[in-house]
Design brief:
The protein is an alpha+beta fold. It folds into two domains: about 100 residues, SH3 type barrels; about 290 residues, Fumarylacetoacetate hydrolase, domain 2, CATH 3.90.850. Helix content is about 15%, strand content about 25%. The protein has nine helices and 26 strands. It is globular. The termini are far apart.
Length: about 425
């Protein structure tokens, strides 16, 4: 069988140049249209392959699982079927869309049922998220924050190179790309004030992140090693962990982020499988000091994913303010999951684990406005001539990401959200 990742593979479906959704990608999502109820789909070029319709036409009959999962409103039931099923479906769709195969290519009626224009569809949150954890795993981001907020000579806290630091976030306020939200309110303590005040955040910030989706549950008391981690991960998506920096600065000691983080986080609608990302694996950091044995891993566990963030003011064109890369992560997904479960914490299908802000080593690759403008001291000029220290009302922030190698591009689409004035 030809691998779904084969770089020579071509589709009979028209795929525009620089499309994120090549036949080597085939990410999973949930969509609906004016005529179709929510269901599972796979992105290909400018289209969506309707998996429920394809199942009705018999294309998956020999794969021996309950095809009703494709009519569910989330991917959780499909994901719970396990990696052999994920791979079988992705491989079958790759064959159906391959230019060398005629089963669907020569059946106009089947194409009309199965292929939906993305422009005619509304993308939905692809998973039911039971729990969400946010990590703090970019060494450049942690160093920058330490220099600004603590001691430039000792920017990293003593534990940072020993554990993948994280905190439990709020799953209910994770939304899919395309949503709007109101500027959050919270307590802040201005430097010249003796007591805190309640009001809309003045320092609204994005955080450039990715996230991975748990694909296999564990029982309470069970651990997952770094070697086992990939069997528990379905795939990745883009993530914007919106942050209110002034609220955060007042509340985070002693127990960490709370209202400064739980008002809205945004994911891209398409989940790119780890199988699709496998060709883009690269070596990670040499971790010094040496990590404890349960955090050791072998092989290339970082991934070369190009990331960017753009700000689009209302009634103006966008300005790219950051270009970073997932390969800058110090702590890998495998280490994050091993640490998360080392105490016996159970995980469930659909749980979301975010990377933390992904910053690179130079100013152009910093992954938040806090770093890009260095706490507001270096404003960024927008396309309309206005300046940004942080995010204004009416701004849309767009996160994009893709991996590319040997002429093959595997991307995530967009993760976009717009800020409305506080209520």
């Amino acid at each position: 069988m030809i691998s779904a990742n084969d770089p020579s593979r071509r589709s009979w479906v028209t795929i525009p140049a620089n499309s994120d959704f090549t036949i080597q990608n085939l990410p999973f999502g949930i969509f609906k249209t004016a005529q179709l109820t929510p269901r599972a789909g796979i992105a290909i070029g400018e289209h969506i392959l309707d998996l429920a319709a394809a199942a009705e036409l018999g294309y998956f009959n020999d794969l021996n699982f309950d095809l009703a999962v494709f009519r569910a409103t989330t991917l959780n039931d499909f994901i719970a079927l396990g990696r052999p099923v994920w791979r079988a479906v992705r491989d079958r769709v790759a064959s159906l869309l391959d230019a060398q195969h005629t089963t669907l290519q020569n059946d106009a009626a089947a194409q009309a049922r199965c292929l939906i224009l993305q422009s005619a569809a509304t993308m939905l949150l692809p998973i039911q998220i039971g729990d969400y954890t946010d990590f703090y795993s970019s060494i450049d981001h942690a160093t920058n924050m330490g220099k600004m907020l603590r001691d430039p000579a000792n920017a990293l806290l003593p534990n940072w190179k020993h554990i993948p630091v994280g905190y439990h976030g709020r799953a209910s306020s994770v939304v899919v790309s395309g949503n709007q939200f109101r500027r959050p309110k919270g307590q802040q303590k201005p430097a010249d004030a003796e007591v805190p005040v309640l009001g809309p955040t003045k320092l609204l910030d994005f955080e450039l992140e990715t996230a991975f989706v748990i694909g296999r549950s564990t029982q309470l008391g069970e651990t997952v090693s770094t070697a086992q981690a990939e069997e528990h991960i379905f795939g990745m998506l883009l993530f914007n962990d919106w942050s209110a920096r002034d609220v955060q600065g007042w509340e985070y000691i002693p127990l960490g982020p709370f209202l400064s983080k739980n008002f809205c986080s945004v994911v891209s609608p398409w989940i790119v499988t780890l199988d699709a990302l496998e060709p883009f694996r690269v070596a990670g950091y040499t971790q010094e000091p040496k990590v404890l044995p349960y955090l050791e891993y072998t092989g290339n566990c970082n991934i070369d994913i190009h990331l960017e963030v753009a700000i689009r003011p209302e009634a103006a064109s966008e300005t790219v303010v950051c270009r970073s890369n997932y390969k800058y992560m110090y702590w890998t997904m495998e280490q994050q999951l091993a640490h998360h479960t080392c105490n016996g914490c159970n995980i469930n299908v659909g749980d979301l684990m975010a990377s933390g802000t992904i910053s690179g080593p130079d100013e152009g690759s910093f992954g938040s406005m806090m770093e890009i403008t260095w706490r507001g001291t270096k404003p960024v000029t927008m396309s309309d001539g206005s300046e940004r220290k942080f995010i204004n009302d009416g701004d849309t922030v767009i996160v994009r990401g893709y991996a590319e190698k040997n002429g093959v591009r595997v991307g995530f689409g967009e993760c976009a959200s717009k800020v409305l004035p506080a209520s």
